[in-house]
Design goal:
This protein is mainly α and 231 residues long. Helices cover 81% and strands 0% of the residues. Helix 1 packs parallel to helix 6, helix 2 packs across helix 3 and helix 6 runs antiparallel to helix 7. The protein is elongated, with a radius of gyration of 25 Å.
């Protein structure tokens, strides 16, 4: 009997990877932009720190709630489709077998072999076969609202802590440049790590995150300077 060949694929990481990268990136960039905007308005270091801390807490809660609601909606839709498929299997098993055979035939199997495979699948776990091959829902890609919410909140808070700590450690006069520089370095690293874990180009992943981050910092700095001057 041949031994089972176990492989680890990148797609199995997509659920937590997407939420984790999004949360950390948003935490670093939004908090750093908030700090830079407030610092550009000639505010005191105390005001900058309060704004940054408030941004960290509010952002983490917002990310958790947003991800949970979004992924819950996806999970509800998947659940409804699976329930509908279960009802169709009960009402018309022959029709569902033919439907499954057509799917396999469309993937390159001959008509006879496709029907044979469909019948074998229907004799086993018919609902699992239709869920996977007709609906495209697999355990690796299934929505997990709690996981997405917790990962997003934790990674947002971790990312947001970086610019906040930098702002607290350096002199008030250096907050604008210091936080901006630390943020860009962190974004480059985060973009590269996310690309590496996801199997994408590391330089491209790092560059796109850094460029968008630099733009966000520049815009918020200009807004802070403008309104600070008006005030």
């Amino acid at each position: 009997m041949p031994r089972a060949h176990v492989e680890s694929h990148l797609v199995n990481r997509i659920g937590w990877l997407r939420a984790g990268v999004l949360g950390a990136n948003d935490g670093i960039l939004s908090t750093a932009s908030l700090i830079v905007g407030v610092a550009s308005a000639s505010s005191s270091k105390g005001a900058v720190m309060v704004a940054g801390l408030a941004g960290l807490v509010a952002g983490a809660m917002s990310m958790a709630a947003g991800e949970y609601v979004s992924v819950s909606s996806q999970a509800d839709t998947e659940g409804a489709d699976i329930a509908k498929e279960a009802a169709e299997l009960k009402a018309d098993p022959a029709g569902e077998t033919a439907e499954l055979a057509l799917i396999y035939q469309g993937r390159g199997l001959s008509a006879g072999l496709a029907l044979q495979v469909a019948q074998e699948m229907m004799a086993g776990d018919a609902l699992a076969a239709h869920t996977r091959d007709e609906l495209g829902i697999t355990p690796a890609l299934a929505a997990n609202p709690v996981q997405a919410g917790l990962v997003s909140a934790a990674t947002f808070a971790s990312g947001a802590a970086l610019p906040l700590v930098v702002a607290g450690l350096i002199p008030e006069a250096d907050i604008l440049l210091g936080v901006s520089a630390a943020t860009l370095v962190a974004l480059v690293a985060l973009g590269g790590i996310g690309a590496q874990i996801g199997g994408a180009s590391i330089p491209r992943g790092a560059a796109r995150v850094a460029l968008l981050g630099a733009l966000a910092l520049l815009v918020t700095a200009l807004v802070g300077r403008l309104f600070g001057t008006v005030a």
